[in-house]
From TrEMBL:
GO CC entries: cytoplasm
Molecular function via GO: deoxyribose-phosphate aldolase activity
Main location: cytoplasm
HAMAP family for the chain: DeoC_type1
Enzyme class, broadest EC rank: lyase
Entry protein name: Deoxyribose-phosphate aldolase
EC number from the UniProt entry: 4.1.2.4
Catalytic activity: 2-deoxy-D-ribose 5-phosphate = D-glyceraldehyde 3-phosphate + acetaldehyde
Domain of life from the UniProt record: Bacteria
Record gene name: deoC
Family stated for the protein in its record: Belongs to the DeoC/FbaB aldolase family. DeoC type 1 subfamily.
Gene3D superfamilies the record matches: Aldolase class I (3.20.20.70)
Organism in which the protein naturally occurs: Actinomyces slackii
């Protein structure tokens, strides 16, 4: 049975991460999200603090978009964002560590995710693994490291990497790896209702969209 428009809307992080986004454009994003009934908005940390209507959640990013920041910088960025009102943080993994196969809980991917999770406190942490730049073995290893480090979600993409965004293959593999224990967020290149439904069918429980209005316009109430 095809999910209804309201069900999909409640899975969307309505997103604006353009570096040049103004306060006025972010205000428009908030209004759009409230009108569309999305779960949250996701904005850059320089937009915080930000008032949002009751019921609309506030998310931001960390180590974005490259992930090539030190663990200490990512943790500090996450902690500051939460102190400024962010309820969810989407962090980018260190792709160098991933490609080197360093997933250890000492100085590898797992340790970095744990440091950011601790800085988040009660805020929800999503781990962006940049799946289009990884092979299947690396995707699985990233998901396992995220789970071991206490993350709440794994997420496909920043939407900024030249390798591309979300794919149904990556989403299905991520869901198979984390089971029901973590959420799976599909993000990057999802522009139509058909795209969104395919990601949900593959196992996504959250969708990162900038084209939320267009996607929802293609769905029935």
């Amino acid at each position: 049975m095809t999910p209804a428009r309201a069900q999909i809307a409640a899975m969307i992080d309505h997103t604006l991460l353009a570096p040049e986004a103004t306060a006025g454009r972010v205000a428009e994003l908030v209004a759009e999200a409230a009108e569309l009934g999305t779960y949250s908005i996701c904005v850059s940390p320089n937009q915080l603090p930000l008032q949002v209507p009751q019921g609309l959640h506030l998310a931001t990013v960390c180590g974005f978009p490259s992930g090539a920041h030190s663990s200490a910088v990512k943790a500090a960025e996450a902690g500051e964002a939460v102190a400024k009102g962010a309820q969810e943080v989407d962090m980018v993994v260190n792709l160098r560590l991933v490609k080197e196969g360093n997933f250890s809980d000492v100085d590898g991917v797992q340790a970095e995710i744990r440091a950011v999770k601790e800085a988040c406190g009660q805020a929800l942490l999503k781990v962006i693994i940049e799946s289009a730049a990884l092979d299947d073995e690396e995707i699985v290893a990233c998901c396992r490291a995220a789970e071991a480090a206490g993350a709440d979600y794994v997420k496909t993409s920043t939407g900024f990497h030249p390798a591309g965004g979300a794919s149904t293959h990556a989403v299905a593999l991520m869901r198979a790896t984390v089971g029901d224990r973590l959420g799976v967020k599909a993000s990057g290149g999802i522009r139509t209702a058909q795209d969104a439904l395919a990601m949900v069918e593959a196992g996504a429980s959250r969708l990162g969209l900038s084209a939320s209005a267009a996607v929802l316009a293609g769905l029935e109430d």
